[in-house]
Amino acid sequence: MNPSQILLFVYGTLRPDAAPPEIAEAASRLELVSPATVPGRLLQLTEYPGLILDDAADAPRVPGTIFAVPDGRTLAALDEYEGFRVSNPDTSLFQRTHATAILPEGSKRPCWVYVYNGGAAGTSTVQ
User: Which residue range is the domain that position 20 belongs to?
Assistant: First the structure.
């Protein structure tokens, strides 16, 4: 694996098989790496889920998939779709942040993930 490769943990509408039309072209460029989980809770916001990471030892695991992002153009398109502003992340709907994903055999893989940048009030927990 290329050490400079951009890895992204995906759990919702960025999945190539579930991407809405406005992001489908960029999502189709993602390259499958492995199923994985991250510790946290998945909230149902409106028409899409939002992840809140939780580093507690007993935190539930949210299933998803790690994909390789082939280039900066694809990453920029994903950032825009997720409402992530690199220059002002605190005002972003989702923030792209580092996480450690666990692969099925138990190994750990550092990756990026989009996490919800709002509170859980008024939402329901999906997982």
Answer: 6-119
